[in-house]
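User: Please predict the structure of the protein below. I'd like the answer in C-alpha cell form so I can feed it into my own downstream comparison script.

Assistant: Understood. Taking the following sequence of 408 residues as input:
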Amino acid sequence: MRTRVLVVAPQPFFTPRGTPFSVYYRTLVMAELGMDIDVLTYGRGEDVAIPGVRIIRIPAFHWLGPVKIGPSMLKLWLDFFVVLWSIGCLIRHRYAIVHAHEEAVFFLRFLKPIFQFKLIYDMHSSLPEQLRNYRFTTSRLLIGMFEMLERSCLEGADAVITICPELARYAEPLMPDPERHFLIENSIFEPVKLARPAASGEAATRPVELPAGRPCIFYAGTFEVYQGLDTLVAAFALARETCPRAFLVLIGGTPAQVEAMRALADRSGIGEHTLVLGRMPQALAARYAARASVLVSPRSHGINTPLKIYEQLASGIPLVATNILSHTQVLDDKVALLVDPDAPSMAAGLVRALTDDALRARLSANARQLYRTAYSRPVYEGKMRAMLAALGAKAWAGQGSVVRQGQT
C-alpha cells in the first residue's frame, strides 16, 4: 500500500525562486520513493509534472498583486485560506505524513493530534528572524509570540529539516530530541518539469547571442536588494579597467527590476557591456551559464545559503562569492574566490578569476569534488531516506531503488 502524503507549501508554487525550488525537489524525491502526494499551495504558479503528485490550489486572488518574497499582509491573507483548505484535505483523506513548509507548520502543529499524522517541519528560515529582517513588525510582543510558537513546532514535529548549517545550529538546541533533526541542503538542480511549459511567459524567452570571444561574468537568481547586484555592477565597472573585454550577464528579476538594473548599468558606464535578462526556463539559463568564464554570487547579507551555490560548485566554472556567513558555511578558499562585499574587493576577485589560469583550474576541480562528495543527487536522496526512515517509514525509505522520472 502506497503511503499518502500532504505537502503544504504556502508559496506561489511553482515559480523560480528559492522555496518553490526546495518544495519541488523534496516532493520529487518522495514521489520517486513511491508515495502518493497532494501538494496544497497558493493559486499562483505553474503546475509541475511529477508522477504520483496532485496539485491543490487555494483561490489565486490575482487582483491583490504579486506575492513578494518575505512576510506580507497578502501572504497572511492567503495563509488563512491555506488553513481552511488544509483542514478540508485532512477531513477528506487520511494522510500518513504531512510535510509542512515554512509557516504552514504553525497551524499544522495543532492539527496533528486531531488527525494523527506524522509531521515534517521543513524549516527554510526562522520566521521570527524574518519578521525582523523584513521589518514586518518591531513589536517585541508579536515577535516573542512567534518565537514561542516556533519553539513549540520544533518540539512537536516528528522530523525537522533545516537547509543550511547555521540554521541547523540555531534550531537543534531547541529540539528535545536531536535525532529528529536532519540537515538536508537544497543541493540538487535538475530541470523542473512543468505540466504546461508553453503556458508560462518565461517559455517564450528566446536566446540572445553573447559577444563572441569575450570572457563572461555570469549571475542568475533573484534581484532582491540582499543579492548585492548593485555592488556587482560597481565592481564590474572597476574590473573592466584591467579586463576591458569582460562582459556581464545578469539573469532573473521581475520586469521592473530588470529595467532598474539596466538603468543602473547605464549610469555606471557599462550598459554596452552588460546583458540584463529577466526570468527564463532553467534549460535556457544553463545555456548562458555554460558560456561563462566566471560565476558570481555577490550576496551582501543573510544566513541561508543560496540555492545557486550548489549548481555553481558542480559547474566546473570558477566562482567568486562574498565572504559572508551565507556562503562560508558551505564555501572556503579551496573551492571559491571569497571577497569582501564591497566593489573594490569584488573587482579584484573578478580580475583574478578571469586572469589566473592556475587558480581557475584549482578552484574548479576542488569545487566539483566537494559537490560530488557532499551535495550530489545520491547524497541528497540518502538524507531524505534517513529522514523518512526516522518516521518509521521503512517500507519506502529502505533499500529499494529510487525510480526517477523517465525510468521504467
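That's the full C-alpha cell string. The first helix runs from residue 18 to 32.
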